[in-house]
Specification:
Distance between the termini: 70 Å
Structural class: mainly alpha
Number of strands: 0
CATH class: Mainly Alpha
Order of helices and strands: HHHHHHHHHHH
């Protein structure tokens, strides 16, 4: 939706230097998202021990963010360049394609984050029920997320649009931000409170371990909520300005739109980065994959050390 302000760019062009700098930033975001998501997918494919229910959801999130990095961000950059150099006919055609794909990718990312929060709550609240869930249920939920995102994207073709039809904005803002935000916030706050309550029920000898787990969970919950808010709130806020004040839309600087979209797309790299950094069994394999030379030296050192110990 934020691309609506692009049409005004032909009246207030940014310099070629600025446009090149912005392109460089978007390329950097794309590269970072590619490295993060491809790394976690590669590790997941190589390590069968990592194929847990939780990690399947994270991998599904990685694939959705990979789609944003490979397809959607390049399309956005193409639209930006075409409008700035006054290729309005070509830009208008690509914008129609980009708009629906942007909705599809955004909904995929948001719904996966929401599902992961609910999955974690289920695992803590009803551990026995969660443990005996069939693998087919995970596949069903992931498929439902992709199907729902596709339906929402396709539906956007038929819904009325324009600054004077606020119904579309209300629908997409509710589905795309407010409802997922409330669900994510409620799930992770409930998780933190539930773990704290259970810690108080444990024997004193387990208190230190429980406290450490509680702090880790609380920090993870805080990071996820902050990340979701920071990456998505500016995007929906600027769309709110577009729909509430039609005269204000044309006055918003082009650089603001580019900044909001850059922050919005950076979530594609940060999503899996946050989860991988907080999950121990994922963190080490990814580090080994990204730093093979260091890991090889470490293995050689351990081999030599073992040889010396056994020789003695």
């Amino acid at each position: 939706m934020a691309q609506k302000n692009i049409s005004s760019a032909k009246e207030e062009l940014i310099s070629s230097i600025s446009l090149t700098a912005w392109s460089g930033l978007y390329i950097l975001i794309t590269a970072f998202a590619l490295v993060c998501n491809v790394s976690i997918i590669t590790v997941f494919a190589k390590k069968k021990c990592l194929r847990t229910r939780m990690n399947y959801y994270i991998i599904a999130l990685a694939f959705s963010d990979l789609l944003i990095a490979i397809v959607i961000i390049p399309l956005w950059l193409t639209v930006v360049w075409l409008y700035v150099i006054h290729k309005n006919n070509q830009a208008s055609l690509i914008t129609k394609i980009f708009g629906h794909l942007d909705i599809f990718g955004g909904m995929l990312s948001i719904l996966h984050l929401m599902v992961i929060s609910l999955e974690r709550l289920h695992a803590i609240l009803l551990p026995l029920s969660h443990r005996f869930l069939r693998p087919a249920s995970t596949i069903f939920v992931i498929s439902a997320v992709w199907l729902a995102s596709a339906v929402i994207a396709v539906t956007s073709v038929f819904l009325p649009k324009g600054l004077h039809w606020k119904g579309t904005f209300i629908i997409y803002t509710s589905i795309g931000f407010f409802v997922p935000f409330v669900v994510i916030l409620t799930a992770y706050v409930s998780l933190t409170l539930l773990v704290k309550y259970r810690r108080d029920q444990l024997h004193r000898m387990h208190t230190k371990l429980s406290l450490r787990r509680e702090r880790k969970l609380a920090l993870t919950s805080f990071l996820i909520i902050v990340m979701f808010t920071v990456t998505w709130l500016p995007f929906f806020s600027i769309n709110l300005i577009f729909y509430v004040c039609s005269n204000c839309a044309s006055t918003i600087p082009y650089h603001v739109v580019l900044t909001v979209k850059a922050v919005h797309y950076s979530g594609s790299a940060l999503n899996t980065l946050v989860y991988a950094s907080r999950i121990t069994e994922l963190r080490r394999p990814i580090f080994m994959l990204l730093t093979p030379s260091r890991e090889k030296k470490r293995e050689q050192y351990l081999a030599v050390k073992h040889y010396k110990e056994t020789a003695v």
